[in-house]
């Protein structure tokens, strides 16, 4: 379908180039459909005829709005035209080819959108003699989602779902990590110039990175543009950040591809002069144009497309001025003024790569323009991303969901065909880095890039095509026809129904080494001598071994399992490369399998299994059949404490005993394994659960004094409660005055913090795995440091207490209001050992309390109730 369309377009272009239209009687002009102004900027692109352009270019260059064309002048007033300027600048080095491409005929006319519908304004301009076409400039948007969460660069190496990545590791290892001879133009938001992981971004300046946003004089970097650039060229092997597809190898001093930032999206991602950015990139060394943006079809801005908006997307094609710029880039990137490849350019001509869009519809201008490479998106599971546009016009797909890359000042995840597109640009840059040079063309690049992609793992369907899956290694090995060298030497041995092979990795002339090997076995030698390796008979048993990171000459091992016992087989090995070119067979050998072998049970360690009640014991066992037969495992636990769950390793089972699930005692678990031939193996596993020791109180009462608000004290739990078995007890707290003292337990430590003056009793209880408990109490006093003496309570019903800050002999004398002494004693007193006076027999009334200690005397008054 695409090739047919290309032919038709070329035919139209040829017809236009051969027909000169008279100014006085133009043919029916090309006009835009009636669409709401919300889809457009306030600018219209027009393409003048050669004659008209020659008449008006001097006036427009001088800033004039009026020309010698009266119909045009009438529209200037009617449309509220405020400015007219060239779409494309001029490069003195390439004026001849720019004019040959007709870039000097394109102008941008800014009008007042409040005066007229933009499509109507374009229709009016298109009717003016000397104007070939007029189109309102569409607003554009980047093709990303802003979902951000913990990063995983699965697009480069999908370890959880092997195969659904871009398969780049072997390219880095065997071919290239990128070259700074290659420049990729990123037409997007601005790229952060000083990002720690983007050292190859070309600085602003003559021929360097540049903004094409109206009214801007310098690049304003954004997350989206920086994210796209990071996918392509973030520095590899530099110990920080992320890896770029073509980011070089910092550890070896190898620079990655360079990024030319051509900003044509601003903060709100509206449009700038994208066509001029494309021309500029072609004229300043870029050979790959990366475009993660597209047109906006959401007329009402509600976040989804209704039927009319989908129809609008279906009817929309690439703007003519952008198509002209794309054509210019494809034709002249990497070339001199006459279209010949520059001596220092890695490629003749350029490739333009566009994101397919995120509307989940079968349309998507401008990515559906025949001459560009359109990129759909996949998720980490190999499915089409739910948002990805699709259709016969989509050329290739790449990872686009949850992609981690650089953003302003850091790193984050984003999703969208915006993220899939730079993966393709990055692999294209790798291809140019390796194969580029004199004679290498953009068509050669496109062929390798697209034909080397993997159709077998693509999620494309006839109704929702997003192309084959990007495959970096497939593109590098594309076109290889030479199979790997034949395996000349190998060893075999048989054990039960298994034949084992050992051989060395062989070389491959155009791929470096074999991709993998087929191990073959049959009871009929003739089947191997005449075998078609692309159509192996069911009677031939085979297995596959992938080389992986092994080098030529390294030893490989493999086996064919499940063979008949005591049977003679004929065996051989055949290598294959990534393009499924098969080597000739090795020598055919005769191997006889042996009789059935019983299953094997082996423990990871030996020794008695003895555990305390609070402990859990585990021991790994490998349980398998050496002949690769199916097995049945019978497990008798001996008690409720034992189990035998599967482990994480191959053939691994983990014998587990949880001590508190059974009473103390001696037990035996039995494992019996039986194969399909009724051969069996048995393992008796003895284990002992020891008697539990209840926790005990070490100190029943512990005293703590705090002397300031906020003051804290720590008490080790082992000073209060201990467990002979060394068990980590479960702790609980009881606090009589939580507003006076805050109590908490962490890391087997009791933390006490003063909240107010007063007393509290904090009781902690430790409970073991069998519910046995022990408790201890901590008396906490929060004492005012400014008061060396406490006499309480003021209203005495029975006992009066006298407490001093420090322990010393203290005299306490109590007299009545008439001076009669009712108490006079001297005794040691302290903060935790107060003097307690029995006043139960004292008559109600007021009493004076005289306290003497440390050479000081104090007087307090209390009332006996």
UniProtKB/TrEMBL annotation:
Peptidase S8/S53 domain segment(s): 180-454
Signal peptide region: none
rRNA-binding in keyword set: no
Name this protein carries in UniProt: S8 family serine peptidase
Keyword Protease assigned: yes
GO molecular function: serine-type endopeptidase activity
Gene Ontology cellular-component annotations: membrane
Keywords: Hydrolase, Protease, Serine protease
Residues the record marks as active site: 188, 224, 418
InterPro entries attached to this UniProt entry: EF_Hand_1_Ca_BS (IPR018247), Peptidase_S8/S53_dom (IPR000209), Peptidase_S8/S53_dom_sf (IPR036852), Peptidase_S8_His-AS (IPR022398), Peptidase_S8_Ser-AS (IPR023828), Peptidase_S8_subtilisin-rel (IPR015500)
Swiss-Prot/TrEMBL GO biological process terms: protein processing
Organism of derivation: Candidatus Cryptobacteroides merdipullorum
Pfam families: Peptidase_S8
Family statement drawn from the similarity comment of this UniProt entry: Belongs to the peptidase S8 family.
